[in-house]
Amino acid sequence: MNRLVVTLGRLHLKNPILAASGTFGYAREMEGKVDFAKLGGIIPKTVTKRPRIGNPPPRTVETPSGMLNAIGLDNDGIDHFIAHHLPYLKTLPTAIVANIAGKTEDEFLEMAEQIGANAPLPEGEGSGVRGLAGLELNLSCPNVSGGVDFATDPDVARRVVAGARRVCPLPIIAKLTPNVTNIVPIAQAAADAGADAVSLVNTFIGMAIDWKKRRPILGNVTGGLSGPAIKPLALRLVYQVARAVKIPIIGVGGISTIDDVMEFLVAGASAVQIGTANFFDPTVCGRLAEQLPQALEQLGATSVQEVVGQLK
Amino acid sequence: MPDFAQLLAPVLENRRLARDTYLIRLEAPPVARAIRPGQFVMLRLPGSTDPLLGRPFALYDTVICLPSTSGRGVGGEGDTVKPPLPNGRGADIDAPGAIDIVYLVVGKLTGLLSQVQSGEKVEVWGPLGNGFPDPVGQAKHVALVAGGIGQTPFLAHIRELLGERGYGGQVARPRAKRVSLYYGVRTADLAAGVEDFRQAGAEVHLASNDGTLGFHGFVTDLFEQHEPPDHVFGCGPEPMLHALAKIAERKGIPCHLSLETPMACGVGICFSCVTPVRTADGWDYKRVCVEGPVFDAATLHWET
Fold first, then answer.
1. Which of A121, A152, A208, B43 is deepest in the core (most CB within 10 A)?
2. A71 to chain B: which residues are within 8 Å by CB?
3. Which residue among B96, B128, B160 closes a domain?
């Protein structure tokens, strides 16, 4: 038995290392750089109902140990994603978890249904065609002006997750925002509504200013902070939710080394997503997957599951 | 991109060329073998979280190394890399083992990079981007127009155009009979690499904003005073590229521009470095790192 295998509700991954949405393109960009077969999974960039041109540049700015981004969900829409990116993604030798963001609850459900049509076919009917492994709901993009931050209200989060479960047969992951007073009731709402896991957390809203010009640096004024700077913040939220809510957690926020991965697992995450580290270390995901067995050995663990949430 | 590599590259030298301008030579055989003129690499200081991200740098040139007596090729004791052959003729095209990058100190990373010593290591990944396309068929005369630090992609380009060197595993073959480089700087002491361009075989025309070097004025005005080439390539600040694109359009000269856009990843996954590009139904943001950095000037949708 493979001791790296992790189970997140109905989602089974060969190891706990996932590439985070928005930091791995549509995987095609990383072909020849990362051996996809080594990864637990890939979450391609968020797609929306309609094409979005995204925010005007500058879209990112580096900050100490981190970066702010305000890309604005630049994408060609779900129809293009299904026609152009999905056929390629389905050929990859790892789990693919689609990621969607709706402007309204109805948009979430329409897209969840479209993505659900790409669930694996029952044995024998698929003639070897891989299906998607899961669906991550981006309830938390901070950069969509006029949009609703769905994961700031437990009731809204509950409705969107429950609706997605109704119309989409795939495992459902809710990606939550840290920009709330208390994340626990929102994670609880996602769990109650039937989410298979929650991804904790999306970026922290921040800002950078050029004081000499008295202007914000980002075209969008504010952006989401990511990178090593947010790791302690994300770790605390993972720990807090793991203590309070019985739902598998995918830790995300500033993870760039195997030590970071282990810290999140011990804090209570069953899997992790690698985000900004892909930008400054494009081969990092494959390397972390390779380093994981040795790190587990250091704790005398024979499986990933044995170390999850084992903080003393 | 099967030729992609990410590695910790030993620094073979890092010397000042002009004011605030340095040449760093990195031992990076897989990158050196695969990279073509107009492509770029990302450089990062190993383990650094401030600056955290890499920065994009154009290839200045690959360095062809003489076979080392130890048979280990490049590297090792630091004395196995010989200076580049003057014109590379007769050298094995697979031989490049190092890359030269010329950079201007403008911020945190380049400031720290200028202090790196030989023997230290820098993280490098590449080659990245599309590189310069061949000039239009039957191009007799190709012009290159550079402003600021925009001259750096043109040394390898001149050598490739004149058939002095092959890059990315290609055999050397001439793509133009004559290459003119128009190179403008703000002031004379910022000019870097002029002798390299002359030695590579380009006719070099210099300009400076303050009249301390060559033509007194914008390099695009200097370019316009000369006989139109069959194809022009440009690299430099956006206002300069905009002016060049207008001249090329007016005179009907095919024009390709290499954009200098801030990037976070360089590999197409962050969607930071976008520029507006014309599409069938208007325009869309395209990623400079993967769909560029070299664009046909006619496709760029300059914002007004």
1. B43
2. 270-272
3. B128
The 10 Å Cβ neighbour count of residue B236 is 24
pLDDT averaged over every residue in chain B: 91
Rounded to the nearest angstrom, the minimum Cα separation between B107 and chain A is: 12
- Chain-chain contact of B271 with A59 (C-beta, under 8 angstroms): yes
Can you give the three-state secondary structure of A252-265, one letter per residue? ECCCCCHHHHHHHH
Contacts of B267 in chain A (CB under 8 A): 25, 29-30, 33, 282
Q: Does B267 contact A282 at a Cβ distance shorter than 8 Å?
A: yes
DSSP 8-state class, residue A52: B
- pTM (predicted TM-score): 0.93
Tens digit of each residue's pLDDT (9 = 90 or more) over A51-77: 999 999 999 999 999 999 999 999 999
Same structural domain, B154 and B119? no
Q: Is the pLDDT of residue B64 over 90?
A: no
User: Residue B11: inside a domain, yes or no?
Assistant: yes
Here the CATH number for the domain that contains residue B9 is 2.40.30.10
What is the mean predicted confidence (pLDDT) over B78-100?
57
Longest CA–CA span in chain A (Å) reads: 65
Check which CATH number belongs to the domain holding B235 and give it: 3.40.50.80
B231 lies in some domain: yes
Among the three residues B69, B99, B128, which one is the final residue of a domain in this structure? B128
Q: Is B46 on the interface with A (CB under 8 A)?
A: no
pLDDT digits (tens, 9 = 90+) for A193-226: 999 999 999 999 999 999 999 999 998 999 999 9
Q: Do A280 and B271 touch (CB under 8 A)?
A: no
Give chain B positions within 8 Å (CB) of A59.
Answer: 271-272, 274
For B59, residues 6+ apart whose C-beta sits below 8 A from its C-beta are: B35, B36, B37, B38, B39, B40, B41, B99, B100, B101, B127, B153, B156
Count how many domains chain A has.
1
Asked if the structure places residue B286 within a domain, the reply is no
Q: Would you call B52 and A227 a contact, using CB atoms and an 8 Å cutoff? A: yes
pLDDT under 50: residue ranges of chain A: 145, 147
CA distance A210 to A200: 31
Task: Say whether both B36 and B146 belong to one domain.
Answer: no
Give the SS3 label for residue B161.
Answer: helix
Residues of A with catalytic function: 141
